[in-house]
Amino acid sequence: MSETNRGRLADHTTLRLGGPTDSLVEATDRDRIVAAVTGADAVGEPVLLVAGGSNLVVSDEGFRGVTVLLRSRGVTVTDDADHVEVTVAAGENWDALVARSCAEGWSGLEFLSGIPGSAGATPIQNVGAYGQEISSVFRHTDVLDRHSGEIRRFTGPECHFGYRDSVFKHARDRYVVLEVTYRLAKSPLSQPIRYPETAAALDVAVGETVPLAVARQTVLTLRRGKGMVLDPSDPDTYSAGSFFINPVVDTARFDAVAAAATTTPPHWRVDGGVKLSAAWLIGQAGFRRGYGHDGVAISGKHLLALTNRGEGSSKALLSLAREIRDRVEERFGVRLRPEPTMVGIDW
Length: 347
Ligand SMILES: Cc1cc2nc3c(=O)[nH]c(=O)nc-3n(C[C@H](O)[C@H](O)[C@H](O)COP(=O)(O)OP(=O)(O)OC[C@H]3O[C@@H](n4cnc5c(N)ncnc54)[C@H](O)[C@@H]3O)c2cc1C
Known about the structure:
The protein is α+β, with helices and mostly antiparallel strands. It folds into three domains: 2-70, Uridine Diphospho-n-acetylenolpyruvylglucosamine Reductase, domain 2 (2-Layer Sandwich), CATH 3.30.43.10; 75-225, Uridine Diphospho-n-acetylenolpyruvylglucosamine Reductase, domain 3 (2-Layer Sandwich), CATH 3.30.465; 235-343, UDP-N-acetylenolpyruvoylglucosamine reductase, C-terminal domain (Uridine Diphospho-n-acetylenolpyruvylglucosamine Reductase, domain 1). 24% of the residues lie in helices and 26% in strands. It is built from eight helices and 20 strands. It has helices at residues 30-42, 94-104, 156-159, 196-202, 212-225, 251-260, 278-284, 314-332; strands at residues 2-5, 21-27, 47-50, 56-58, 63-70, 75-79, 83-89, 106-107, 128-129, 132-133, 138-145, 150-155, 175-186, 248-249, 267-270, 273-276, 292-293, 296-298, 306-308, 341-343. The strands form six sheets. Strands 6, 7, 8, 11, 12 and 13 form a six-stranded antiparallel beta sheet that branches. It has a four-stranded mixed beta sheet with strand order 1-2-5-3, covered by helices on one side. Strands 14-16-15 form a three-stranded antiparallel beta sheet. It starts with a strand and ends with a strand. The model has no long low-confidence stretch (mean pLDDT 96). The structure holds flavin-adenine dinucleotide. Flavin-adenine dinucleotide binds at residues 14, 49-56, 70, 90, 115-118, 120-122, 124-125, 127-129, 172, 175-177, 228, 230, 237, 239-241, 341.
């Protein structure tokens, strides 16, 4: 475990934004993570957990406390006739795991290719893309419960997974994910394609399957076209991914949105109402790709990604985000909520 003083959090977020932290601890295995967090808790020092920093917006003032960089490594695999169970340390790179699963013939992660960040963060917001979510392959996770100081195991139902949501997202100061076990089918083929965009790109019907490597390459190509794969040479990827969650509204609000819009809103019936596309709402509110000011802008490739063009600040990013939120709300009566974790920011 190495400790340095007053690191800059901008060096540890994909937005490349965030002020200083009092101290920075790099925890390279499970025991060191537990020691760093419980040690800080024992003296009442605030803790910020950072893994890939790809879902974080940290204020320019930074974080008063200890930032623990989750850098644990290790993957173990057990198998039975039809499945493998893959147990992954929290700090493992997510996309490296997906690449390995596709190469090994383990089916269930392929549509989650190209998502930045760590394995340990995947249960936090039930990471998902292109019709696949972690919850569908999740077996269990071992977490440090900071209230009791004990290691606890959560199974799927105990995680209360929802759309970009889980029990962990609402108890950020309580649970530290130490490792995650996924259960994957032994198959050279993808899970059935559920997303029309993926099916169209592959020229197959929704519900069909394709070889894992083909699914992965197709998703990577689609994601690159939207700036959704990290690329140091492309400022459109200096983001936290989708900035806003797709809102779920009741039927009356959906009807009002449809009446106020110039085209039929893309929508999906879900538990609790109708899910709308945040990107569509932003476009209908008059925003265009590339729009921005003060060194930050909407991505040139995707309306949902807010990017740092290299010289931006968190203050400027939040000002742009609030401008978008407020104009969408004025026009449609729908208040957008941010997807990333905010640190030191009053949203
Ligand atoms: C270009 C781009 C594309 C993206 N595309 C997608 C996408 O398609 N789908 C999607 O769901 N997300 C997407 N994201 C968001 C992000 O990549 C995921 O949410 C990812 O799982 C975050 O992992 P991380 O390790 O970077 O987490 P961090 O950003 O380091 O942390 C995020 C939050 O989780 C907490 N946390 C992290 N690790 C742990 C742990 N082990 N235990 C407890 N708390 C922890 C942190 O304290 C913080 O609150 C994208 C982001 C970017 C930049």
